[in-house]
């Protein structure tokens, strides 16, 4: 006979909650350039998005620790979140965005001429010049997620502030998915909530954006 789990038991079974948050709008978003490792700061709109996200998270899902990419658009978002929460903030280079090498900061029109994609797309094991490959970022996401699960297992809830492609790969790592042709979209300051239990990895929600889409 299967017994329904009481809400209190559910709560006790949760070992760790992970909020994964994308940064707010950056200057690169309005300049039509490849961003990746190019280090652009938040725009005024991005700062406002971050404040709204921080207010929502502080009220509904306050973390005990914030981990952030070192790139300005993410660290700026994480700093605004920290001000709202008051918890510790730590920075990790491994949470930076996909390393797009020579494309970083380059106008998209120029990149299409200088570095056109090969016919059929770039093979997953071959990086752009001076960058990393699709397989590289998938492995990086796997490694940093395992480090976080190990190093922060004594926390009840942590937040990770990062970037679109790295977040997509973190979600794949959490769900034990290969690199494949699957991707998870995340809007500016989109929020994902994951739960780690003793015998289960649970996705509570993905890409919540009501803090910026609702007035």
From TrEMBL:
One of its GO terms (molecular function) is phosphatase activity. One of its GO terms (cellular component) is cytoplasm. It is an enzyme of class 3 (hydrolase). Signal peptide: none annotated. SUPFAM superfamilies: Phosphoglycerate mutase-like (SSF53254). The keyword Protein biosynthesis does not apply. The active site is at residues 23, 97. Its EC number is 3.1.3.-. Keywords: Hydrolase. The keyword Nucleotidyltransferase does not apply. Substrate binds at residue 73. PANTHER family: BROAD-SPECIFICITY PHOSPHATASE YOR283W-RELATED (PTHR48100), HISTIDINE PHOSPHATASE FAMILY PROTEIN-RELATED (PTHR48100:SF1). This is Histidine phosphatase family protein. It comes from Sporosarcina thermotolerans.
């Amino acid at each position: 006979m299967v017994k329904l789990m009481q809400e209190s038991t559910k709560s006790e079974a949760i070992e760790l909650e992970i909020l994964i948050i994308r940064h707010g709008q950056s200057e690169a978003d309005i300049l039509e350039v490849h961003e990746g490792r190019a280090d652009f700061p938040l725009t005024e709109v991005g700062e406002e998005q971050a404040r709204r996200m921080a207010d929502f998270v502080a009220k509904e899902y306050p973390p005990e620790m914030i981990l952030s990419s070192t790139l300005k658009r993410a660290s700026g978002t994480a700093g605004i979140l920290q001000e709202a929460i008051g918890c510790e903030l730590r920075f990790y280079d491994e949470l930076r965005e996909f390393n797009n090498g020579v494309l970083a900061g380059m106008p998209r029109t120029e990149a299409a001429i200088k570095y056109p994609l090969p016919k059929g797309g770039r093979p997953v094991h071959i990086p752009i010049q001076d960058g990393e490959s699709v397989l590289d970022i998938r492995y990086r996401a796997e490694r940093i997620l395992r480090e976080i699960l190990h190093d922060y297992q004594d926390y009840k809830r942590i937040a990770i502030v990062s970037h679109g492609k790295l977040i997509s790969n973190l979600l794949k790592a959490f769900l034990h998915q290969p690199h494949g042709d699957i991707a998870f979209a995340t809007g500016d300051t989109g929020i994902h909530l994951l739960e780690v239990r003793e015998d289960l990895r649970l996705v509570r929600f993905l890409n919540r954006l009501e803090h910026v889409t609702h007035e």
